[in-house]
What does this fold into?
Amino acid sequence: MSDITRTSVFGTPTQRQRDVWDVEKRAQAAALAAAQVGATCESVDAAARKVITAAGFGPDYRVPGLPHRTGHGIGLDGHEWTNFVRGNTTRIQPGMCFSDEPTIAIYGEFGIRLEDCLYITESGPRMFTPQSPSIEQPV
It folds into this structure.
């Protein structure tokens, strides 16, 4: 199973859309960097949320900001346990696979989600797919 999301704009993105997209990309990268063997799933969520909160969104699960988990287990059934979410102290181990999908929701304006799947190796996380390069070139 796979799960991937790209956010694009019909027409030319505004500077605000570019800025928020860049925050989202940094949050996704922070989650990937935090998904190390032995780390807790909640620490991956916290890493993404820290970037989003530092940019003035949230805090916590408040909108505008990241209103749900940062990612979920991925497997034959698609959305599987375990989740990158506060309170989940499951330790990350080699062989696990996850989505990395922090979201920035700004109700009434727009939302941004970048989602890629990753797998955990003995030496750390690796993406199955390349991350989106830019809002103008989402794939």
